[in-house]
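Re: duplicated header lines in exported structure tokens

Our pipeline writes sequence and tokens for each protein into one text file. With two proteins the header for the second block appears twice in some exports. Here is an export where it did not happen, for reference. First protein block:
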Amino acid sequence: MNFLLVGQPGAGKTVSACTGRHPTLIVDVDGKAGEMYIIKEKIDRGDVTVLPIRDKLVGDTFSARALHPDKPPKIQPTGYVTTVDILSSILEKAPEYDKYKTIVLDSLTRLSEHLTRLLIYHRGQGLFGKKVADDMSWPSWGSYKANLEELFYGMCSYLEDRDFICTVHEKTMTETTMSMVGSQVVESEVVKGFKPLIDGQMRDKLAGYFNEVYYMDSLMSKNKDPIYRFRTRGNKYDARTSLPLDEFEKSNITEILKKSGIL
């Protein structure tokens, strides 16, 4: 099975991703999972292993980037390639990853930022041609989309007896509307829906690669600790499920699999 978990920072995506079949490997692109107290016990017990991606978004110094904001980085960014190499090794059944029953990519939003920097670097080397004035797709979105499509097709189709969980941040989609209040024109922002926080066409296509797409929802308990839930359906959220689930489920992947008769 594969799952896409979408939500705001702090909504419980990483914690929920650690509730699947163990042992679990987190490919930690965000660089935060290893420091999260809430999953420390699982890490100490050996149920969860965190593999941090420590590559910087850009290797150039901050002063160099500030002084030359319109120029591409001089040092090739490595974060995207580092991450993809790990995922490729998992798909090719490298023995060091054989024991893991669940693979977590945390998060796609940060991975897409690494890829954007890499494409900007390549554009600066002349590999994508010259920048065109007012070209909103610069760097090349075609390359971006194709690379992500290949990655997610592989991870969602060829892991065989293992589960894949991907987290991604949430983007609120709004639309500006105009209305008359008396003799005045008033602008207002209307929320149209919620999408994964990545750029371009992949934002609309991403959910199609996954069996299950859940949006993170939470309630406050009596002691004011959050109770994390999965929203499993809703057009505004693009949430969907093929399993016999309620609209809201406790954010526990193992319980979802048991309820559905998969485990």
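Second protein block, exported in the same file:
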Amino acid sequence: MDIKNKRIVKTKEIFDLVQYELSINNLSSKTRTRELAQARFIYFKLARKFCRYASLSAIGKQVNRDHATVINGLKKYDTEAKYDPYMNDIYDKISTKLDKKYIPPGRIQEFDMTFERILKRVEILEEQLNKLTND
């Protein structure tokens, strides 16, 4: 994976992308229309996935909400997305854009070495070495 031209995504960038994709002027307004509420749920879900080290409060701060609202929005996303596939379509579209431009969250598979994996690898190498020296 080439990460030279990629960087870590910020909540503001996700906020702007959701507003752009859904043609919304102000995602952080206090209006509770269905359209704005669903857009915020999509933002919460994307920010939680891509901004791994951002706290729930930091995610909510971008849209003038608190951490409890973010938790509730994440739950409501799952509920509403079952009945409104458009939410998943928008989520997937924005997620694909973020995958191309930014470093994906989590560890890169090639470097995913835990202590247990290293110990297991050492055991395998010791067994192979013992077979070679005994032959």
